[in-house]
Design goal:
Layout (H helix, E strand, L loop, with lengths): L6 E4 L17 E2 L1 H4 L11 H4 L3 H11 L2 E5 L8 H4 L1 H8 L6 E5 L6 H12 L11 H15 L1
Parallel strand pairs: 1-2, 1-3, 3-4
Length: 147
């Protein structure tokens, strides 16, 4: 069974997979499954080494509906905003098409107040990746888009 995806799932892979619950009846697109995110060669530019990564941007724009998964506990809630891939995915989501799913694994209002306060102090330019190559690859795509 195949269907065109109707929701792009943006999720920090160093948080729980339990949080990924696409809307009922939707056809989700997960980049880690659909796109090779490893270098295909050792020479050339970062964009030459990771040609499939460009399709992530294309998929985000074509699907036109991004669901950002934000863990509901205060310790992990900012992970998507601190990961370069998630920032990249948010940047290329069409205006008005970014939806945020905040998990509720911590029901305390204090925890949610800490999450909102941390969001106010957030600096996405400090977003990280698993390695320097990923960071330079993502930054190159983002800079090319914004000049």
């Amino acid at each position: 069974f195949r269907a065109p995806p109707d929701v792009f799932i943006s999720h920090s892979w160093n948080s729980s997979l339990w949080d990924i619950r696409p809307p009922r009846g939707s056809t989700p697109w997960l980049d880690v499954i659909a796109v090779t995110q490893h270098p295909v060669c050792t020479g050339g530019s970062v964009l030459d080494q990771f040609p499939d990564v460009g399709s992530v941007k294309d998929a985000i724009e074509q699907i036109g509906n991004t669901l950002l998964i934000v863990p509901g506990n205060a310790e992990e809630a900012l992970l998507p905003f601190e990961r370069s891939w998630c920032v990249f995915e948010m940047v290329f989501t069409p205006r008005g098409a970014l939806h945020i799913h905040l998990g509720w694994s911590d029901w305390s209002f204090d925890a949610h107040a800490r999450i909102w306060a941390a969001l106010d102090r957030l600096d996405v330019s400090q977003a990280q990746t698993w390695g320097a190559e990923d960071k330079s690859k993502i930054d190159a795509f983002t800079l090319r888009a914004f000049g």
